[in-house]
User: Fold this.
Amino acid sequence: MATSNPSVFLLSVNGQIEGANFPCYDDLYCKYCFVYGQDWMPTTGLEEGITQITCKGRQSQKLIWNFPLDITFKSTNPSGWPQLVLSVYGPDVFGNDVVRGYGAIHIPLTPGKHKRTLPMFVPEPTWRLQKFTRLVDSWLWGRRPEYTDPKVVAQGEGREVTRVCSQGFVTVIFNIIMKDMKKLGYDSGPSTSSNAQPCGTASGWSTEEQTNL
Amino acid sequence: MASPGASAIRDKLRKQRRTLQETFVKLKHEGDDEQALVPSSGLSEESQHSTMNETQSSEDDPGETLKRTLRAQRQMRRKKLLEKLSAQNSPVEDIEEIPSVPLHSEDEGTGKISKVPSLTSLASKAPKSRASQQSDRFVTRRLEEKLKAARSQGESLRLQEASVVAAGRRRDRPKVTRSDREVDSDADSSQFLPQAASTRVKFRGPTEPVERNRVTADEAYNFFTINFEVQPEEKTSKKSRKSSKERKREEAQVQEEEDEERSQDPSQDHDEDEPLVQDEDGNVFVLEQTSKDFLEVKSAEYIGLRAFAVRHRPLIFTPSSRTVPTSAKLPENMTPRYLEDEGLYVGERLTVSPSNENILENRILRMEEGAKWFGDDGRIISLPDPIKESSSRPPLFHMEDDLDPALQTFYMKPLQSKHTNLSICAADAVLGDYQLDVDVSGLIFSHHPLFSREHVLASRLAQLYDQYLNRQRNNLTEHLTDKLNGLRNTMRNMLEIHSEQNLSQALQQRIVEYSMEVKNTRELRDGEQEKDRTLLKSLVKVWKELKALREHQRFINTPYKLFLRRETVDRESDEREYEKDILSEVWELEAEAEVDYQTKLSEYKKQLDEWKAWRKKQKSKKKKRKKKAQDETEEDDQEASEPEGPPDEGPSKPDTPEKLELDTIVKQVREKAARIRRKPGEAILIPELTASGNVSEGELCPRGEVARRHEVARRFIFVKILYNDKEVSQTNSFPLNPDFRVHFGQIFNLRIVNCPRSITLQVFEDLGSLYTMLAEVYVPVPPSSVLAGNSSIEEFEFSSNQREMFDHEGVGSGVPLSFTGDASDNVILLTSGKLSCCVSWGVGEDNVPLAPPLSQHPGAHHGGQYDAVSPLAPSGNVKKIGEWAMQSRLDPNDPVNASVMQMLKVASSGQVSAPDFFRLEQLQEEFNFASDEELARSRRFRLLALRSQEVPEFRNYKYVPSREREVSEKVFQGYEKRLKEGEMIDTKEHLDFHRALVAKYLQKIREAVIHRFLLASHHFLLSDMVIEEEMPCFGGARLRRVPDRHLRDSTEFLEMRSPKLLKMTGRAEMLNGAGPGILGLNLFHLAEPKRPLRPQRKERKKVTAQNLSDGDIKLLVNILRAYDIPVRRSQGGKAGPSPQGAIQGSDWLVNHVQVRPFVEVSFQRNVFQTTTADGPNPCWNEELQLPFRAPNDDYSVASLQSVKDEVFINIFDEVVREMGARENGESPQTRVEKHWLGSVKIPFSTIYSQSRIEGTFKVKTPAVLLGYSKERSQPNAGVYESVHSLCQGAFITLFITIEPLLQPGESIREKIKELKFDSQEDERLLQAAERFERAAAEGFPGRPCATTAVDLNGKTVFITRYIRPLNPPPEIMSDQPQEDAIQVARFVSLIPSLPDKVSFSGICDLWSTCDQFLMLLAGDEEEHAVLLCNYFLFLGKKAWLIIGTAVPEGLSAYVLTLEQGRYLIWNPSSGQYYGQYDTFCPLQAVGCLVNADNVWLNIQEHVSPMRISFDVSRGVGWRPFFNRFFTHPGLSSVQPEELVYRGSDKTAAVELQERMEKLLRDKVMEWRPQRPTRWNRYCSSALKHFLPSLEQCAVALGSGAHDLAEGHRHELENLLGDNRISGFPLHMAFSEMGPIVEAVHSTGVHTIQTSNVEFALAVYVHPYPNNVLSVWVYLASLVRS
Assistant:
């Protein structure tokens, strides 16, 4: 491959799913997968993964996974930029595995280190009656509505039919390296070491959430 | 205040004071101290003061003196302090000072404390501020109480000592107290310092307690906790010192304040004290320290309401609701100006209540720049009320009587356009059945070569008169005059009103504008008047000429006569009017002249000044030059000459403007008036032209004239009509009248197909033998709204430049003509005239306009008719419009002018066009990063665009290259080819032209449907997104019902008892009510055994196709058992000894092994097989896993649905043959052969859509199976024998499913239903249908119920409309009704099912009508069933359509007939029929029955046909759609009245037969690449003979086939005696080649491996009417033995 005249650009992502903050739940594990457009292809690394189950420490309210991510994509087209989709599961009182949160985030577009906090949410049940008995019901059966596919949270289509409620946060660290983006004519902004960026820039409330920990 | 102990204390005080007064000044202060002892009785500091005041009032002197002394002392001390300050005060002093700080009022307390050493150290060190005193007070109080006892013991010495000590200290104390006090008050009220003392007091009153409290909190805490050091004290002291400077300045004030304050405070302070005392009394005592002591306890902050209000006053603004005076709202010295008074359009204001408006105005006025919110009229600027007075929506009249009968709506049945069905073959050319009416009514020549001179004049006269009439009609003069008068009046009024005051700038401007307007209007009017005048004059002149000519030539050629009617006017008033007008005009002109003069004058002055200045300069220059010249005359000549130049070029002296004299103006005006206007008093002349004159007879005329008239009479005129440049018609020839008019009066109705481009009328002149075309008239194509009824005749002018000259009186054409002798007024006249005609669209019989739709209309492509303004815009007309708008003083506020103003606004901003409509992406162009052409040119962009459009070829295209050059052109080849194919028809693949056409048409429909489907697939339902467990109950309805009822009852009950309780208990009830229902159920579930003895199939989790890849999906085929497999024929029986019999003799002797069947399942060319079982009723019970690959690796739902692959389940007989006995006696080698016995094929799409298929299927066995016979089942049950015989054949029980369970496309089908197809049905009917279906779905889930279907046009049609008796093809009819039924069923079954039904009709169930079905020759079960049902009805049977579920089709349609009290169920796609009680009937569930009259829903308990009653006449068991309440509205059928069949085409069949045979031969050879394939011609021809007879016997009853097969077998065996033959005829309906090839392949005949095998192949195609073909393929293998 002539490096001077590349036909693809590479996006190398490594980092880790650091941990999560789910105030009410414990013993959670996290599944991740990447969702990307048709012009993208993972060259190396795991596209999907599942973390260990972690439980909260005595003092800390945080769930720590420290689960490494390492994947390299090649692509010809920035459209369909990969997204990381996380879904967190954990047992309920009866030990049924139920979903505790879905979340998705685009892989940062600029090289460097990025810390991201993903707000998580779960779909709400629809029946009015079930809302009354949700407590009882979910205790007994672990009936929580789930998405047909966790990947739907990475797309906008059809989301209008769902109702969700927010659950907690997952923190992910990305280290991004890119190759040949500029050569192909794409400029992804300042590629300087913008890791001076504070970690909780995504939203004001997420930092607040963190300071409370 | 006056406590009981007060008097005693007072006495004591007095005593003390007296003594003290006499003593030293310092000691006198002690009195103050003692006085402070008063609080020891439990009173607070304030009370002390009041006591003091009391004392003061009672005995003035001591108090006063005390005060004075205090003051003096204080001053002294201050001096001291200052000294100390200046000289770095020592820590000791600090300490001395500080303890007193907090205790300024509890002096005595401190004194006491100091007596208790342990306490003093603690208390005295506390850096208390004065503010902290309140809390401390309690402490001190306790101390006091304790110490009082001690004191009362009378240790006087100690007291004295203490007093001495205290006195020593006290020297400083008061001052420090003050200072400290000031510190605090300074801190919070420093900003008030500059204010007057009174306000200070006022503010301090409420604020100080708060302040005090705050400090208390911190300080108190410190007090108890901090390990005291010097530092904090120092700080305080510093503070105090700092503020001491200020304090000094206002010493006196402070004192006063204090006093006042004290007198005010008590009441408040008391309030605050009380709770504290209760709370803390005793607890906070220093000696008993508890943990509570360290807690911070503070009182709730309280701010008095009044204080609060005061504090907030600067922040709060309450606008008053009083009316604001107009002057306040307008700038200074401005009078309000009311636009509406000035005649400008001002919209109606919105109504706002006056008080609200006032509030708003007040508020705005408070703001900065508030004035800009007010308009010139002093009101808030507002947009006009946007609500229209009258509703733009037509009013709804509920009272039908009130309505104009013409406006009443009435229901019309929807009409179906007949073209919709025709579009199959002529889909490309838009067939229009339109009618254009061309009405050619007449022709008038305005000039003709045969005109005589008189004619020329007459036509001129007529034209002038026309013009005159026209002008008269428009009456511009009148209009302008009115306007002028109006303007003058307005201006006069304005001047009158404002004459007194000075005219404001704006007003002046307006007056100027008005006068401009007046001037313009006047000029216009003058012009018009002049034109009128000249027209009248020329009219008269021409008439005179005409008269002269008539006189001259002494005959009259034209009937025209002009009369001039005089209308006398009142001379006086007329004159007055005239004068008035002239006067006002003069006056205006004068004013204008004045203005003009002024401007000119100023101009002149300016110029003059300039000139003068220049002159001066020039002069000075000259002087200089002169000087210079004088000085150095000889120096330079050229220099001298140079400055000479400028003076010539300099401004010349301007001329003085002349002032127009009034006289000249008057003169001018009068002159003009005389020229253009009727003289005052002169009668008004009204010309009237009539054609009433007589034309002279021919005899009276000279020869030339007679010749001309003769010539005229010879001429004939006709008009040709050209449509799209093709001549379509022509009028009759009409003679030219002497007055050169032709009347045609003909209307031509043009039936047109193509959309009109041009309509031309050609005018021809017929001179007997030769035609000359005079002119062509182009008539515009009318818009489709112009219909025959509403069009008006228009005149089109034409002219020709033909030259013609005559030697008679005719003037000719194109030649000069003069009326006078000297040719001074030569004119050249050309033939011209007017053609009156009218073109409009015709109207059909039923008032349907026969006009093409707008889209076809070429005129519609110009935006012109939509956007009236924009076509003006590009050509620079905007400027003109702008000018015009400026000139005409367009009122910009008037909504009528909105579009123009809008355009001007946009135009001035630089944009070219200003559409009147709203654009969504108005700035799109700016954001386009590449032009559209560029995008189209770029292959990469094109690829991306196609992919995002989800074009099938590119939907899953991955990795679009990043660079243009990497996208090869090849990528698009397939796509472009497909696009091109759309037009072409490929006959190669289809063998049959008609079918190719149909395939194309189907393709088109499919695309349309897929498009719709794609739209729907982006439409998500909740179930697509979220997996949610169903409600935990037996059924939604039940659950809902139970708690609801429960609730209602209980709440009602409660309501009666006490309404109050309702809320609370109602909720409790709800929980209780709901609880047992669900909880109990859940618990019941919990108690379920984990491993039940009788396990039930669990619903598997469905997997969406998104994350699947190759190999993930498997097809599970569970083959359970089979029944009635054909058995090998015992050879010994009829056929005599044969070689086969010899070989297998042993077997047959035992007669055990009748057949050894095994099952082979092939799917996507993967073949799996079961083990071999024995006997005709084998049991395998094996599961086969077949891998599945989706096309293009696309596992999306849409892609999976379009999978066309079929699962072939073939039953083979395993035959073990010995390879001939070896000579050496070794064990005989055996070879395994497999013989095909029958097959079942199930399309993958069926499996996919049903997710599992389970049941017993009839095995399709060949009609003749050589070497096998059917083992007849014993006639065990005589009753059912006849029934049983109906369903002979082999059966196999299967269970097929997909692993993992895929999300079926079912939901999409429903979604498409939701998308709502439009319909022509009555809305009420549709609603009822929806209700019916919903009720069915709720009450009987799982029972298919169809009331409506979607026809091929995508319209919803009620289902009963499909049922109508229809004639079957006559050729297949015989006289026996029973046979007819079978024949008909066979015919229907021969119409092939749609090969890819899922992607077409499966999605949304398109139902074609029977004629469409027969034309398409493809359809799914519904169409077959409908056709069959209709045929049966025609045959006089009672027939119904069954909508139900069947295996393997799933949701399907069958036909039910009632024959001799027995119900028969017909499978329309196979032609088979079953009795109601037939076990092997594929129909599993009956949902509803349909016939032409009604739809019945099965409401019986069971759905299986065996267990239900089909008697719909009884009310039970079937719920009718139409009932007494909703009767059948008499729905007409959508089916044609009669089916027309094309006869069977024998030759085509033969041709097809040959082609098929060749193809199959090639294929078989292709499948056997390793071995040579030999064809046995002899056998082939023999087989070929069989096939027609097979067809015949298939047509005949099935039972006959057996005998036939027997016969054939014998025949064959005779023919090919020494060959082992195995083969079978395949029979199928013909649709395409592909399925046939696939079917042949699946039998596996070609797989035979023997070397000496020969093959025989015969194909027979039997044609049925309407191109329905029955195909027989006979394939046999022969092994020579």
User: Anything to note?
Assistant: Chain B has 50 helices and 38 strands.
